[in-house]
Amino acid sequence: MSTAKKTAQKRRPPHRTLTAPGPQPIPGESLSSWIGELAHQQDFEMKPLLRELYLDRLGGLSAGEMRLSDPVVRRMEKLTGIGAEGLHAMTLARYAGNALPHLPLLSSDGLAVQQWHKGAWIHHSEARWCTKCLRANEGSRWLLRWKLLPWSFACVDHGVYMVTECQACWATVRFQHDAPPGRTCENWTDEGEWTHDLGEPCGFPLRMCQPVPVSDDSVLALQARVNTWLDGTPTHEDRHLVALAAVLIPLLSPTMVRRGDPLLRYAVRSPRGTTQRQRKGRRPWTDSLRVAAAVYTANDFLNHGYSASEVAEWIADLRLLDHRRRPWHMDVTELAYGPSLRPNPYVEPLVHRGLITVGRWL
């Protein structure tokens, strides 16, 4: 071995490892958020930390947040002292029985994951959050249901709607791949969008965004019911509420939201929710206010005791009042994996009435 190589090896810093115990996850925290807190606590760079936890393989942290394999769990238990139950609770596997019934069993199954990602009703990168929760949690800890699921439209603890956009640049906040949620907005401003060396990210602190208060207590009650469904303990009525809301989100019209919180009516009337592919391909369920409006309308329909066919007739009539005749084009994979939540008793009557067409995107 050459002298230069021996000298380089002597100068190489010794291999670092984690020291238990790691930070305790907060209830409902996402895995990437906890990993970020672990990196901060142990003063670790993100890439070496993911390598140390075996999360640099088979899809990385994104695949790990979907479902953790047994070798990864054993490694993380050994290095951090966090039990397997607590680790699995920070992944999408906790919702596999309700919100994500077709979650792939193996994150290494590329074809199954690809099909599921195409149709599953999750946020691949869009963020939503409660700023008051971020201020209360040390280190800006992010919940799993904020980061990946569209069903959180309001914070029950603080009585505010979820924030989905930076209030400095008014752009959708997105998560980086294989990185913990950011504490500041990293969207490039208009001034730096087309430059190579002078542009800078927005940098606005996300916890400083001002949330909109919920003026109707029934919206908070509906969010609590949806949370019960997410946690795996729903009633029969809760399941029907979510099933109907899922198909209502793309079919909403302003007349359906004529009562209740005026902000929900605005969310349906505004350009942000009037077409299927507004704003750089964003789907309707990426807007928390539109999801809230759909759950509110679904609850109104169900309180009248309408059957599935009667609900389809009401939806058709109310859409005609607002001149909304175009059907919603539902992809086959979306029908199988996503918001239809099969078996869904409301899909077939809506397809029969021509309000939903199943096939490929047009």
Write structural notes for this entry:
This protein has 362 residues and is mainly α. Helices cover 42% and strands 3% of the residues. The protein contains 17 helices and four strands. The chain has helices spanning 3-11, 31-42, 46-52, 60-66, 70-80, 84-88, 110-119, 131-136, 144-148, 217-230, 236-248, 262-269, 278-281, 288-303, 308-321, 332-337, 347-352, and strands at residues 154-155, 160-161, 328-331, 356-359. Strands 1-2 form a two-stranded antiparallel ribbon. It has a two-stranded parallel ribbon with strand order 3-4.
Task: Compile the SSE list and pairings.
Blueprint: H1 3-11, H2 31-42, H3 46-52, H4 60-66, H5 70-80, H6 84-88, H7 110-119, H8 131-136, H9 144-148, E1 154-155, E2 160-161, H10 217-230, H11 236-248, H12 262-269, H13 278-281, H14 288-303, H15 308-321, E3 328-331, H16 332-337, H17 347-352, E4 356-359
Parallel strand pairs: 3-4
Antiparallel strand pairs: 1-2
Helix pairs in contact: 10-11, 10-14, 11-14, 12-14
Strand count, sense and barrel status of the largest sheet are: 2 strands, antiparallel
Query: Total number of helical segments?
Result: 17
Radius of gyration: 22 Å
Structural class: mainly alpha
Q: β content, as a range?
A: under 5%
- What is the share of helical residues? 40-55%
| Ends distance | 64 Å
Poorly predicted sequence stretches spanning 5 or more consecutive residues: 273-279
For the residues shown, what is the average pLDDT?
Answer: 83
With strands numbered from the N-terminus, the spatial order across the biggest sheet is 1-2
- Using DSSP, what is the number of strands? 4
Shape descriptor? globular
